[in-house]
Request: fold
Amino acid sequence: MSSLPLYVKCLWACSVLAQLFLLIFLFVKGNFRKIPYFTAYIALNICQAGFIFFLYSPWGPEPHTIFVLAWTSESLTLLAQALATFEILGVTLRPYKGIWGLGWRALTVVSGIVVILVVLATRSHWTHAQWFELNRGYHLTFASAVIACLLLVRYYSIPVPTAYKMILGGFCFYSCTEILINTILQALLHKSFYDYQPIWQASRMISFIVVQVIWTTALRKPLPVENSQATAFPDSTYQQLSPEINEQLRQLNEKLLQLWKLEARPH
Amino acid sequence: MSLALLSLAGFGALLLILLVWVLVDPRKRTARNDHMGLAADFDRRHVIYFPQVRQALAAEDFAFLASRGSREMIRRVHKERRKIALTYLSWLRSDFLKLWRLARVIASMSSQVGAAQEFSRLRLGLAFSLRYEMVRIKFLFGSAPLPELGALSDLVSRLASRLETAMKDLGERAALAAKLASNLDGRSLDSR
Reply:
């Protein structure tokens, strides 16, 4: 810790302070009852900051152990992040049973494709930077899956309270910036990465502080009451109407195609 | 920078752009507004004007005018017909979009949604948008043989009545769904 420059230490302190504010807001406004996993995620982040502080202190273990323990604690917070996101998605999409079911399938397909692409793209770096690659792979999969869900939400015009949108947006923004920071720094500072470690840490912390500010703004008021049931049609209605509408759409499409063909005919 | 790292950075940037696009919706539409809009939209079906459009685009009328009228008048009529054709095309699109939107509302309010049906509808929507733009550009630049548009009317007229009946039926059901949805929303508001 003592080897870190002052500006990194200041950013670290700001980040912890922002998280503490957020945790206080969660309890004061009673939002911790509505989103317990998210609250646990914030609490875990604060604990992780304390743990890392201890690791880098003069009483901490040897460098290799620090490296392994720091990345292990990061894995735990990433797991908590996934659970918190799943919780928010559940709150917003679960009342729409059909779309929630569709969202699940979309998540599985998108995550599967991204995992395969990440493995293919990073297999050459795997041996000397496995933690780094695991971290970036996770953020790539996570951001793609959340954006796929947000696309579904937009496509079906599902009303999502602004606070939940801001929380999901914050998670996604953090993951996207992590991908960009890790990739760009890995490419530019490949040979002397350890010399530039403070830049890497500072840029990650700045993006995390931005996210904390977004979340604190979102959670300054109590969260809206969950709509437990938004489906109005029985199963048979969709089964009957959806193919009917698709058929109508197909016919309109064919008319347009015929118009195109009519035009293409020489006169 | 290797190709793999470049593609990863590009993918990250693409995700960030997508995130901004997904979160910033200039229309600020909500599902409830959609339901209301749908109910109102079904009172303004465009296909009912089809006979008038058909008359305006009849090849016989144009041939008659061409044989009797001045060059100036023929040019003006040609311009008017192009305008009608473009308007008709936008009606076709509007009807398509209404059906497309209605299907999404029904899906969002159903307890079971078929992935194949939804994917097929998305594909239809993308194909329609592409073709629509292609045909519109042709009309705009005047390369389309406008008198032949009359043939389109025969193709569409059969669909028009069927579509109108179907849309009326679907509209009634969607309005019912919207009413149910607003009742549900009201209940959740009351519970606060």
